Amino acid sequence: MKILIISYESWREGNNGGNVLSNMFCAFPEADIAQIYCSGEPPQNSICRKYFQISDSMLMRGKKGRRLEEKDYSAENTDLSEVTENNVKSKIPGFLKSASMLAREMLWVFSDWKTKELEGFIKDFAPDIIFAPCYSFFHVSKLALYVKSIAGCPMISYISDDNYSIKQLKLYPSFFINRLITRKWIRRLFKECSLVYTMTELQKTEYEALLGRPMKVLCKSAEFEDRETEIGDPVQIIYAGGLYLNRWKVLCKLVDALEAVNAEEIKAQLHIYSGSKLSEKAVKKLNNGRSSVMHAPVPFGELSKIYRSSDVAVHVESFDLKNRLITRLSFSTKIIDCMNSGCAVLAIGPEGQAGIAYLKDNDAAICVGDINSLPSVVQRLANDSDLIKEYSAKAIALGKRNHIREDIEKGIREDFYSIAGDGR
Q: CB 3.0-4.6 Å disulfide test: which of 64, 203, 235, 368 passes with 348?
């Protein structure tokens, strides 16, 4: 089988999108897989070797897309600069970010990206099926539809965030202009898809009603091996992932709680692995060297080892209304990484958020739905190793019920081969 993937991000196993792709397509060791992508980064994965790159900077310079074939990209190519330099950002107003996103879309509207080189890549590869994740950038949807028109094969999509509804607390005209245009292209994209994957039952129910397309919940998979280890002294707490959408503010509350617990002696420490940009004040708060230490991002293989040597894995979602609306349907893939780590999972976020609700409903994590109760929860974690062991076992148990790699991969293979075989 030949599978052509169309995505915004490059396939790097150190970023979330690349991690998801590797998790899915390791199910096809016999397949020939290619990717068309729109970012400036080089790929870095062990699955795909054929690429076509069209980035914003290429279009701005009037350059055509390019092929990248039979290249090996190693973790050594990843820039992991010092955290004190890498994580500091300048404050950019939200309306400027929104306007810049719309400007990028206009760049794609007026650029000549439908080139002979791109058409030649599609025809030479001749895919049996296309996999095109859905984004909040409508140029990626337009690209996917163009590729399908050239390839003439079935297409499957995947949506993990609320990229369609207008239940958002944003006042920038540029945001709503972009969202309304994006909605039009999502409808067109899904109309051409034989199947759309979502990550939660809540999103599946809502989007099936809105868009009238067949959808299926797709869970990230892992191995979920039992773990029997002693709890560290001090307790080692890990957070790995993005700090955007005010997740950093929740972690600051966690640091405050740890500082109180560690007043006389260090009983628990938080280690943060992230490449997200923050203000100098936020970095200072999260990198105090006593209760909390920030680290540069590391390749996924190394991160897995760090998870396995930790005691508590943290997942957070923001409590403020604006970001609650953005993430209400989202199921972070980091949740499965946390569950698979063998750590107890500490989930901090609003109870109605899809990922938090999943963990709470299955009693698979220590859930904090009220930020004011966080200090008492942290106090207990720092002094109760049995609680950590109990929720480590519960996370693994849920993983074995719903997220075993063999079962998930079997379902994905059946979907792809059935749709490609039918030509739907």
A: 368
Task: Pick the closest to residue 327 from 402, 241, 399 (CA basis).
Answer: 241
Percent of the chain with pLDDT over 70: 92
Q: Please give the Cα distance from 115 to 122 (Å, whole number).
A: 11
Task: Give the CATH number for residue 202.
Answer: 3.40.50.2000
User: Does residue 97 contact residue 103 with C-beta atoms inside 8 Å?
Assistant: no
The β-bridge partners of 75 are none
Q: Is the pLDDT of residue 91 over 70?
A: no
Asked if residues 157 and 133 have their Cβ atoms less than 8 Å apart, the reply is yes
Domain with 371 in it? 235-402
Angle between helices 354-361 and 201-211 (to 10 degrees): 130
Q: Is the pTM of this model over 0.70?
A: yes
Q: CA torsion sign, 304 to 307 to 313 to 316?
A: negative
Q: How far apart are CA 232 and CA 267, in angstroms?
A: 9
Give the pairing type, strands 366-368 and 32-37.
unpaired
